[in-house]
Amino acid sequence: MTRRTNVSMVLGIGLTVACGIAPQAWSAAQAQQTGQAQPVAPPQRAPGVVQPSLMFGFETDAQGWTIPDWAMEKPDEYFGQDVTVGNEGATEGNKALAISVVFPGGRWGGAIVQAEDYWDWSPHNYVAADITLPPDAPAGLRGKLILTVGEGWEWIEMSRSVQLKPGGTTTITADVAPGSGDWKKKNIDEEFRRDVRKMSVRVETNKAPYQGKIYIDNVRLE
Ligand SMILES: [Ca+2]
């Protein structure tokens, strides 16, 4: 929620950068008085007012989201069983994607689902998804977004994972603008968000056992 509020603020900086060096960054560099410090460029925001865009609401079906074959072939690491759509866990409309998982506990385990397409996210600065857990889910489950981008189909994970709340909804948001530090890749450029080919959600457990559902809804660009 705070991110949304911040967008107009950073937008202002982004527009200034388009005309030269941001005044804030320039004066900060001058304050160094060393003559060596370079102004740090803030992430370059999409110009104008960004209209949020719903990518996946799962109101009719799974919209192409599946467990990838490679994960099904690693039953000792990935414990997602199947993907369905139902009335539980919706944060947009009435339905959500539901992943059935059987985490054995005692060691790392993951469940991953993905969709594949060719997306140009240039008009947007953030990608977000709501993850909802039933009340009987254990504490300690974490989630992150993973993208596959560009001609080389490069797999790029978020640089952090987000703790998921049992019995509640957690929104995972990642910055996709050039200069973003939210990904395990340095020097995120404009091409990153211009050529996105897969989007995945991975939920992980370190030790907690869990047999039940994980819900995903309202996958969107902001
Ligand atoms: Ca929905």
What does this molecule look like?
This protein has helices at 2-19, 23-32, 69-72, 190-194, and strands at residues 53-56, 80-86, 96-103, 109-119, 126-132, 142-149, 154-157, 162-163, 169-175, 196-205, 210-221. A hairpin with a 4-residue loop joins strand 6 (142-149) and strand 7. It folds into 2 domains: 1-42, no CATH class; 50-221, Jelly Rolls (Sandwich). The chain is of the alpha+beta class and 222 residues long. Strands 1, 2, 3, 5, 9 and 11 form a 6-stranded antiparallel sheet that branches. Strands 4, 6, 7, 8 and 10 form a 5-stranded antiparallel sheet that branches. The protein has 4 helices and 11 strands. Calcium ion binds at residues 57-59, 90, 92-93, 95-96, 217.
Describe the structure using short key phrases.
222 residues, alpha+beta, Jelly Rolls, 6-stranded antiparallel beta sheet, 4 helices, 11 strands, disordered N terminus, binds calcium ion
What's the layout of helices and strands?
Layout: H1 2-19, H2 23-32, E1 53-56, H3 69-72, E2 80-86, E3 96-103, E4 109-119, E5 126-132, E6 142-149, E7 154-157, E8 162-163, E9 169-175, H4 190-194, E10 196-205, E11 210-221
Short synopsis of the structure:
This protein has 222 residues and is α+β, with helices and mostly antiparallel strands. It has helices at 2-19, 23-32, 69-72, 190-194, and strands at residues 53-56, 80-86, 96-103, 109-119, 126-132, 142-149, 154-157, 162-163, 169-175, 196-205, 210-221.
